Every structure is written in structure tokens, then in C-alpha cells.
């Protein structure tokens, strides 16, 4: 990641400020050793790191700063235990439990009230905080950038190093600022903003960069929507993404179980207020986007870049022959015709969940839309809250009643059908509209055809039975976003 700028007169970016506050050693002009404040693990990759650490005879340097959850493989059916649809899954769950116990770290176990998807839990428990560095062997750790936390995904070997030493070596990355100016149109959400960015600047557009999201449209977003946006920074190939903390962030964090208290809280807030890019800070690349020009967006292909505005037509293969072959492969896999409108395409199933869009504000928006409506006949509709806490909070508001009355299944929290790690799937050949972040081939199980979109687009389409523009549904509610 970026080093301190040599020229001390030059303003600093937010990214540079956090990094310089965490530098243990400048190794050379391309590498530095960084202090890692928090480490999060999950049963899919975390147990591997813990076991390998244990086998090498080393211990966790600061077990109080290390957390683990069960999310990827766990069953999300009511009454779940250690058993999962994936034959080897139970073994992962039990091995994680044992490794976490041995290492003395905090585990949010299968039936724990604090269990949930790692990136949802880290924010909700106040484990991820503005200005901290945080890592997890999971690519969507960037979600926590929504809080102004410098958080990124690592591999299991790096996780082992971080566990043993509380440090990590980082290579220099360039800085990018993506500024969204102006106001979003009704029916357009943070999910559409990030899909728009990736569709226009490419799935590799952020490669080699740490991205700061800025501008009036970002300030207007509530913290949970900022997390949705940062969640997909990795789909832009960025090292990570983040948003400078502000009063909304401070309100969001206040009182969370692991957030600082008393005098420490006051000191933390004073520090957080310094965490913004200086007005004369220089980024290696700047992108500006007019938020007003963003439409609800839906992926048509097998990569988040293959996304269009809901009122556009599916593109024809173009560019060089390699690109054309890839686009044709996407059309074939998705069983779509170039030139046809995407809106109106019949779907088989909808999924609301994942670390992108399964927080309370997402579920509130969906429930406000679905109240008094029914999912179209024949559509399999599943909602999986991002954490047990989200589930409880949603139930306290009656959200589950609205969703179930509309025809949704209401499950226990976990990654579920975002990723086929626990064996949950709608089945081969099914066309699914999903609030998740990846539409890769077989991502939601062998042969599943995934379209990614915002929760509002998914809810509107569930009712219509075809991919639908949420703006065309007259009773669409204003998105009410609240964080508790
Ligand atoms: C299993 C895990 C390592 C993976 C990731 O790194 O992101 C998963 O969460 C995903 O979303 O593909
Ligand atoms: S919800 Fe999906 S994207 Fe998020 S961590 Fe789980 S599998 Fe990965």
C-alpha cells in the first residue's frame, strides 16, 4: 500500500494517514510492515490458518483482538446444528471450533446470538472501527471500509503470519478517489452505484489501487449503504475501498459491544475526526461520476462488469476476439440473446442476503416494498439475514411476518446461497436474481444463472416474476435506512 509521501508539505490522503499511523517498519520503498489491529476468521479459511499455526508450534499474539465466526458452510435451515448439506462441511465446523478454543480467540459459534457473516458481525459488534487496520482471509473484508476502517482480504498463509505477529507486510499500492457527486434518483441505491462503477470502468479498473469513495452522494449514504458499496471494491479489483468517517459513522459505532467507552471513546472520536483526505492531497487516479445519471443496474453475464442499466439491452459481443468469445460464453451460460431487453426476462428464484445486502436497512427496504404484495407464483424466494442479531432485530419489527406473508422463506443467518460452500442452491439451470456480489459461473451452485442487483430490484422482480425496474412500481417506498 501507499507509503508516506516523501514531500511532507503535500496533503495526505485518508489512506496514507491510516497507513502511516500503522507502520511498524519501512522495509524499502516498495514494502512496509503494518500493525494489524483486528483479525477476523471464518470456518472456511480461518480454521486452516489456526491449525497450521498450531502445528508450527506458534501461538496467537493477541487473542483478544482475534475473532472467528461460522458463516460460509453453516446450514441456514431452521433448527440447524453442525450438520450441513455439504458432506465435508461438518468437519470444517468442528475443526474451527476446536482450533478457536485452542487458540483462545473469540468464536461466534453456530448457535451463538452474535453469529453471522464475518463482515456483518465485525461492523455490528464494533470490532471494525474507523481508522483501524483489519484483515480476514476473505476477499469481501473490504466491506468494513464503509466505516472508515482499512480492511482487506488476505490468504490463509498471510493470516497465519498476522495471527502470530500482529503484523503484515504490504506492498505499495496506488491511491484512487472515486467521487460520486449529486443526488441519487429514487429507486437507485448504493448497490447500483458500485455496479455502475464496475460496469463502466471494468472489473479490473481498480487493480493495484486502494480506493477512497467520496463526494456528496457518498456523504448522503447511511453507513450500511457505504458498506454495500465498499463490499464490491474487490469486484473492481481494488486492494480495498473506504469512506472517510463522519458523524453518521460515529453515531453508528457508538455503544456497540466492542467499541471504546468513556475516556477512550472521546479520544477515539477526536482521532476519527482527523481521518479525511486533506484538501490538497493528491491521488494517483481520480474518477468522477454524476450520481443522478445512475439507474438501477442488473448483471446479465458471468462477471460483475457484465452489468447494464435495467432499461438497456443486452450487449452484442464486441471488442477483440478474446472479449467476443468471453461475451458469447457469458450469453450462452446465461441463456440470453444479445440485443434483447433484460427487463422482462422471466426468473425462477430470488435471493436476498449476503455480506453485500443483508443488513437490517436492506431488509427494512425490502419489507416496506413487499408489504401487502405476493411473490409471483412459481418463484422460489429466500431471505437470509446477515447475522443472528439482524434476524432478531428484523423479527422485533415484524419484517419476517411481511416477508413470509409475501411468500419468502425466512432462514437462519449465514452466507447461504451467495456461495455454494454449504451446498445450498436453487438448482442447475435456475435463473436467480440475487442481492449478492458475484455472478460467476456455478457461484450459486452448479449451473445456476445468477443476476446481481439491489434489494429493491430483487423485491420488485420477485413480485413481477420477471426482471423488473423498481422505479416503475408506483408504490415504491423511500428507502428508510436505519442502523439499529
Ligand atoms: C471462501 C472465501 C475465501 C471467499 C472469499 O474470499 O471471498 C468467499 O467468501 C467468496 O465470497 O467468494
Ligand atoms: S456472503 Fe458471500 S461474498 Fe460474503 S463472505 Fe459469504 S460467501 Fe463471501
TrEMBL record:
Listed SUPFAM superfamilies: Aconitase iron-sulfur domain (SSF53732)
UniProt feature coiled coil, ranges: none
Aconitase/3-isopropylmalate dehydratase large subunit alpha/beta/alpha domain sequence ranges: 16-465
Record field: catalytic activity: (2R,3S)-3-isopropylmalate = (2S)-2-isopropylmalate
InterPro entries, A to Z: Acnase/IPM_dHydase_lsu_aba_1/3 (IPR015931), Acoase/IPM_deHydtase_lsu_aba (IPR001030), Aconitase_4Fe-4S_BS (IPR018136), Aconitase_4Fe-4S_dom (IPR036008), IPM_dehydratase_rel_enz (IPR050067)
Enzyme type, top EC level: lyase
GO biological process: L-leucine biosynthetic process
Protein name: 3-isopropylmalate dehydratase
Origin species: Litorivivens lipolytica
Amino acid at each position: 500500500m501507499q507509503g508516506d509521501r516523501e514531500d511532507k508539505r503535500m496533503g495526505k490522503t485518508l489512506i496514507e494517514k491510516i497507513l502511516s499511523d500503522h507502520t511498524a517498519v519501512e522495509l524499502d520503498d516498495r514494502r512496509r510492515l503494518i500493525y494489524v489491529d483486528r483479525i477476523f476468521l471464518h470456518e472456511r479459511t480461518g480454521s486452516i490458518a489456526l491449525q497450521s499455526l498450531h502445528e508450527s508450534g506458534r501461538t496467537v499474539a493477541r487473542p483478544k483482538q482475534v475473532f472467528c465466526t461460522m458463516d460460509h458452510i453453516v446450514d441456514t435451515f431452521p433448527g440447524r446444528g453442525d450438520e450441513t448439506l455439504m458432506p465435508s462441511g461438518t468437519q470444517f465446523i468442528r475443526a474451527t471450533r476446536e482450533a478457536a478454543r485452542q487458540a483462545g480467540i473469540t468464536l461466534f459459534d453456530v448457535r451463538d446470538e452474535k453469529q453471522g457473516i464475518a463482515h456483518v458481525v465485525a461492523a455490528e459488534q464494533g470490532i471494525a472501527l474507523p481508522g483501524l487496520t483489519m484483515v480476514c482471509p476473505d476477499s469481501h473484508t473490504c466491506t468494513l471500509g464503509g466505516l472508515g476502517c482499512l480492511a482487506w482480504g488476505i490468504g490463509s498463509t498471510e493470516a497465519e503470519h498476522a495471527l502470530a505477529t500482529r503484523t503484515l507486510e504490504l506492498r505499495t499500492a496506488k491511491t484512487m478517489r472515486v467521487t460520486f457527486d449529486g443526488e441519487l434518483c429514487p429507486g437507485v441505491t448504493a448497490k447500483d452505484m458500485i455496479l455502475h462503477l464496475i460496469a463502466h470502468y471494468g472489473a479490473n479498473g481498480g487493480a493495484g489501487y486502494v480506493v477512497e469513495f467520496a463526494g456528496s452522494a457518498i456523504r448522503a449514504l447511511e453507513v450500511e449503504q457505504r458498506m454495500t458499496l465498499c463490499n464490491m471494491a474487490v469486484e473492481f479489483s481494488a486492494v480495498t475501498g473506504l469512506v472517510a468517517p463522519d458523524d453518521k459513522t460515529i453515531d453508528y459505532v457508538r455503544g456497540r459491544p466492542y467499541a471504546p467507552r468513556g475516556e477512550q471513546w472521546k479520544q477515539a472520536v477526536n482521532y476519527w475526526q482527523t481521518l479525511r483526505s486533506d484538501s490538497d492531497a493528491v491521488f494517483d487516479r481520480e474518477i468522477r461520476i454524476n450520481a443522478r445519471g445512475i439507474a438501477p443496474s442488473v448483471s446479465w453475464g458471468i462477471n460483475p462488469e457484465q452489468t447494464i442499466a435495467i432499461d438497456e439491452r443486452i450487449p452484442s459481443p464486441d471488442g477483440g476476439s478474446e472479449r467476443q468469445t468471453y461475451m458469447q460464453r457469458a450469453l450462452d451460460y446465461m441463456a440470453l440473446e444479445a440485443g434483447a431487453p433484460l427487463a422482462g426476462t422471466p426468473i425462477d428464484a430470488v435471493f436476498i442476503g449476503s455480506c453485500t445486502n443483508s443488513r437490517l436497512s436492506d431488509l427494512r427496504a425490502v419489507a416496506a416494498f413487499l408489504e401487502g404484495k405476493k411473490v409471483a407464483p412459481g418463484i422460489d424466494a429466500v431471505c437470509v439475514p446477515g447475522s443472528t442479531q439482524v434476524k432478531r432485530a428484523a423479527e422485533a419489527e415484524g419484517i419476517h411476518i411481511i416477508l413470509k406473508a409475501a411468500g419468502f422463506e425466512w432462514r437462519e443467518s449465514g452466507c447461504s446461497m451467495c456461495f455454494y460452500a454449504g451446498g445450498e442452491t436453487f438448482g442447475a439451470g435456475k435463473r436467480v436474481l440475487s442481492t449478492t456480489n458475484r455472478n460467476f459461473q456455478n457461484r450459486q451452485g452448479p449451473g445456476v444463472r445468477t443476476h446481481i442487483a439491489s434489494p429493491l430490484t430483487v423485491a420488485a422482480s420477485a413480485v413481477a416474476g420477471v426482471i423488473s425496474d423498481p422505479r416503475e412500481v408506483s408504490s415504491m417506498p423511500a428507502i428508510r435506512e436505519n442502523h439499529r
